[in-house]
Amino acid sequence: CLLLQFLSYLSACDRLRKQGYEEGQVEEAMEMFQYSEKQAAEFLHLLAQFNDMGFQQNEIKEVLLLCGNQREKALEELVMK
C-alpha cells in the first residue's frame, strides 16, 4: 500500500512538473497540502500568478496557506501588506 502511495505521489509530481512548475516548488506544495495534487496545482498556479504581479514569493506562500488558496481573499491580503 505504501508503494502505491509513493508511486501516486511521483506521478502527481511528474504531471505538475510537466505543467512547467519547478521540481522544488512541486515537492513543497505537495507536502504542504498533504499530497493532494489538486490543492498543490491550485497553489502553484496562484503562486505563479501572484509572482507575475510582483509580489514576494514568501508573502504569497504565507497568504495562500492562510487563505486556503482562495484567490480573491489572498489577493486582498497581499495588497494590504
From TrEMBL:
One GO term in the molecular function aspect is:
ubiquitin binding
One GO-annotated biological process of the protein: ubiquitin-dependent protein catabolic process via the multivesicular body sorting pathway
Record-annotated UBA domain positions: 34-81
- InterPro entries xrefs: UBA, UBA-like_sf, UBAP-1-like_UBA2, UBAP1, UBAP1_C
Q: Which GO cellular component terms, listed alphabetically, does the Swiss-Prot or TrEMBL entry include?
A: ESCRT I complex
Protein name, per record: UBA1L protein
Source organism per entry reads Hemiprocne comata
Please state the gene responsible for encoding this protein: Ubap1l
